[in-house]
Write a structure and sequence with these properties.
heterodimer, A: alpha+beta, Rossmann fold, OB fold (Dihydrolipoamide Acetyltransferase, E2P), 2 domains, 6-stranded mixed beta sheet, 18 strands, B: mainly alpha, MetI-like fold, 12 helices, 0% strand, globular, Bact_Polyamine_Transport (chain B), ABC transporter permease (chain B), MetI-like (chain B), membrane (chain B), cell membrane (chain B)
Chain lengths: 329, 296
């Protein structure tokens, strides 16, 4: 039964007069790691909860494989959800938490515990099977929550900001484990996040949302190299947004060239700050042709021609590095 | 600045000790006097120490019908406890959703805490008397001829106690459900649990320790209630009412022995509830312990 594509057709969510999700269309191929990305309030969590069946759809359809699941109960859809801060049952041990869905279906105790132990093994938590959630660290709780979601053999695993409760070090570690697990299982993961680095690292399909709409969907590379709008260029970072005669353009911060200002230079700016970042040097610039301008120079390039705050520099870039933006957001 | 406590600490500590003495002194005095010797009177000094007055109480010698009053109060208290637990959970669940008349219902419920107890009691008595009149006047003969009153421990008395215990139970339940993480229910639903399964396997176990507290509260509120019982209890008295009546007629320490026994029952109920909560915790901790499993 595995391997169904997910399709959202004109899916809309209204809360009273506010439109949280505005007629979005999205197709997620089976086995994709999909990240829904956007600032808070952009509708990404509502979208996830509608796919899960925890939020009623105001309009539109959610199609999973051959069937329309819009009106099905959460457990009948072939989806499973991993909740933000995990929502483990505090009175049940890890193994009973994982075995919960089997218990609800009336599976015998020995059998359901065996299956739960297998899942705990998968997330390397079998030695903690008898502990209560309160006795586990955040990362361990997350693994148990993952096992509990996976025991229902979902076609799609839905993850609501799964890494936000972890400290930065653990976040990067768990990020890698999520990706590895998704590859092993071969099922679709839909992962809501507001961190563009998280989405870039994980996603096969990155869906950037803003104000209830999908601004752009594509691979992280497509989106980073060709952001559709100024909003996306700003949100994913690493871009300077500059207006020229024909409209707004984006130039990656690592494509800017800085030289000593000479008379007649097309664009000049004043260095406002210089930050050493290890592998590169970040130069903040104040210019009249763009509100904010940042140049990331490699250490070698910077050392060949160093600048100090207050210096006036000429700013240039190759025509090939210009990316023209759509309607400014 | 030197180590040690400021002078104000000792003043405040002394004041607090006086407050405790004021609070518990009377109870301790009655407790002590109930062990008065057979020839002792109702005031200090103690004239020997004995269980004489407890013996008198147990044999029912001096006081009429105190044992049956005790059992009546115990039954009523337990009934109030069960009803308070059931209805406060149901109402707590209902009030998590929005419904029409929600605020009105809430204020009407809480109002019975604010209205003076004696007024509530009189109102209930009046209502039952009206009901009695109607039955006597209009009911068919075979009922009306033998009918005297609908008032009694488990009708008007129970109602009077519930106007006291139930609103308290509700308020506690609201606080409990305020802290309840709704995502647990979503998680249960996600795992395929029906609403009933969600209630029995997730909601109830999580709130159970607090629910025991609510039951305890309901029992003790009923157990020592006087004002609301006074007009609405019907012809048979509860234990506190008997006790009150006895204060003017009994002139021996037997009444202190009775006070000690009733206080003891209150402590016993509290102790049982605490033991229940501790048992639940210990069972969870035992489940969760890694002791001896060789884990770091």
């Amino acid at each position: 039964m595995r391997g169904s594509d997910l399709e959202l057709v004109q899916v809309t969510k209204r809360y009273g007069v506010t439109v949280a999700v505005n007629a979005i269309n999205l197709r997620v191929k089976a086995g994709t790691y999909c990240c829904l990305l956007g600032p808070s309030g952009c509708g990404k969590s509502s979208t996830l909860r509608m796919i899960a069946g925890h939020e009623a759809v105001s309009e539109g359809d959610i199609i999973l494989g051959p069937s329309n699941v819009t009106d099905l109960a959460p457990a009948q859809r072939g989806t499973a959800m991993m909740f933000q801060s995990y929502a483990l049952f505090p009175h049940l041990s890890c193994v009973d938490n994982v075995a919960f869905s089997l218990k609800m279906r009336g599976v015998a105790k020995a059998e359901r515990r065996k299956e739960a132990m297998r899942l705990l093994e998968l997330v390397a938590m079998s030695s903690y099977a008898e502990r209560l959630p309160a006795q586990l660290s955040g990362g361990q709780q997350q693994r148990v929550a993952l096992a509990r979601a996976l025991i229902t053999k979902p076609q799609i695993l839905l993850l609501d900001e799964p890494l936000s409760a972890l400290d930065p070090f653990l976040r990067i570690k768990m990020r890698a484990e999520l990706k590895k697990l998704q590859k092993e299982l071969g099922i679709t993961f839909i992962h809501v996040t507001h961190g563009e680095d998280e989405a870039m690292a994980l996603a096969d399909l990155m869906v950037v949302m803003n104000q209830g709409l999908i601004e752009q969907a594509g691979t992280p590379r497509e989106i980073f190299n060709a952001p559709a709008t100024a909003f996306i260029a700003r949100f994913i970072g690493g871009h300077n947004i500059v207006s020229d005669a024909a409209g707004a353009i984006a130039v990656r911060t690592d494509k800017l060239r800085l030289t000593k200002a000479v008379n007649g230079a097309a664009r000049t700016a004043v260095v406002s700050d210089v930050e050493y970042q290890g592998s590169y040097v970040q130069v903040g610039l104040a210019a009249d042709f763009a509100p904010e301008l940042t140049a990331n120079l490699s250490e070698a390039v910077f050392d060949a021609e160093p600048f100090n705050p207050g210096d006036t520099v000429a700013v240039s870039w190759n025509e090939a590095d210009i990316h023209r933006l759509g309607t400014a957001a | 600045m030197r180590e040690g406590r400021p002078a104000s600490f000792y003043w405040l500590a002394a004041f607090f000790c006086l407050f405790l003495l004021f609070l518990y002194g009377p109870m301790i005095a009655i407790f002590a006097l109930s062990f008065q010797g057979p020839t002792g009177g109702m005031t200090f000094p103690m004239n020997g120490i004995s269980l004489h007055w407890f013996g008198r109480l147990w044999s029912g010698g001096g006081i009429v019908d105190i044992k049956s009053a005790f059992w009546r109060s115990l039954q009523l208290g337990l009934t109030v406890m069960v009803i308070t637990m059931v209805f406060s959970v149901l109402a707590g669940l209902a009030f998590r959703k929005r419904f029409i008349g929600q605020n009105l219902l809430f204020y009407v419920t809480i109002a019975s805490l604010i209205v003076p107890s004696i007024v509530t009691s009189l109102g209930i008595a009046l209502q039952f008397r009206l009901f009695d009149e109607v039955v006597k006047a209009y009911a068919p003969g075979f009922i009306a001829d033998t009918y005297s009153t609908a008032m009694g421990i488990f009708t008007s008395g129970l109602g009077a106690h519930l106007t006291w215990a139930l609103p308290f139970g509700l308020l506690i339940m609201f606080a409990i459900f305020n802290r309840f993480d709704g995502r647990l229910e979503e998680a249960a639903r996600d795992q395929g649990a029906t609403p009933w399964q969600t209630f029995f396997h997730v909601i109830l176990p999580v709130i159970l320790p607090s629910l025991i507290g609510v039951g305890l509260f309901g029992f003790t509120l009923s157990w020592d209630e006087i004002a609301r019982s006074s007009q609405a209890i019907g012809e048979k008295n509860t234990l506190p009412l008997e006790l009150q009546a006895l204060t003017s007629t009994v002139t021996t320490p037997e009444i202190y022995a009775l006070g000690t026994v009733t206080t003891g029952v209150s402590f016993l109920v509290i102790g049982l509830a605490l033991a229940g909560i501790l048992f639940l915790r210990a069972r969870q901790a035992r489940h969760g312990s890694d002791a001896g499993k060789g884990l770091s």
